[in-house]
Amino acid sequence: MQKRTDPPGSTDHLAESWDLKQRIQRADGVLRQRRGFFTDAYRRSTTHLFVTDDDVVAFASVRRDGYVLFLAVDPDYRGQGFGERLITDVATEHRSVSCHARTTNERALGFYEHLGFEVERRIDGYYEDGGDAYYLTLGTESLRDRLSEFVSR
Q1: What angle do CA 75, 71, 88 make, to 5 degrees?
Q2: Domains of the chain, with CATH numbers?
Q3: What is the pLDDT of residues 46-88, one digit of tens each?
Q4: Which residue in 57, 109, 110, 147 has the fewest CB atoms around it within 10 Å?
Q5: Whole-model pTM?
């Protein structure tokens, strides 16, 4: 397993990340972005990835302000700490970390809550398909605690 980073402007792992996102969309009904939106957002962000045999198994695309645009972990690799490690990378590089998650995506909401994210507000009709979202932020106290915990592993 290799850790890689695509800086803004890079598309080295764009196709593989899109393929992973599409597999998750078919399996879980989430990550419903259109290809053009995904491609543009990927190019403008920093993307942290875990890759094995040139297959992307997890990635997080992040804006300069610490907003997580996309977080995806291959279902075969879930529960192995890849999502936590990606968010830890983001948190070490940014003063704040935030994201949106569908109000119906219980798996994502549980994951973010486990890391110490807090719901700041609900946004009705946030997604293009009319789906509602929560805006989540990682609290500073929980951030310090979680980083200490992850770094000590």
Answers
A1: 105
A2: 2-151 (3.40.630.30)
A3: 999 999 988 999 999 999 999 999 999 999 999 999 999 999 9
A4: 110
A5: 0.86
